[in-house]
Design goal:
Blueprint (H helix, E strand, L loop, with lengths): L1 E8 L5 H18 L3 E8 L6 E8 L2 H9 L1 H10 L8 E6 L5 H7 L7
Antiparallel strand pairs: 1-3, 1-4, 2-3
Helix pairs in contact: 1-3
Amino acid sequence: MISIFVTIDIKPGFKEAFLDSLMGDAQGSVRDEPGCYRFDVLQDQENPNRIRLYEVYADEAALEAHRQAPHYTKWRSTVEDWFDGDPQRVLTSTIFPSDDGWRKQKPGLLNW
């Protein structure tokens, strides 16, 4: 599995609309993408306009499928003018849980 950490700074005054739009992408990712095993949305405690995403995908192909998914393209086109600078991304490989552990957790992600 691979994971990606994304840090997004949002222009003042756009946080609530940004988060509302982001929920469609987050929920669509875990609900509609077989290769997405986690999509966490986190807000920085010191800077409320800084949002961090933690996402886990089966592989590079699943990450690329995410970037082509309708919920992602809709979210991205909606919020791109609200970014305060470019999003920062860090791509990693997961160690724990195991790949099988991620697969077993997926059904629980659908219980919001």
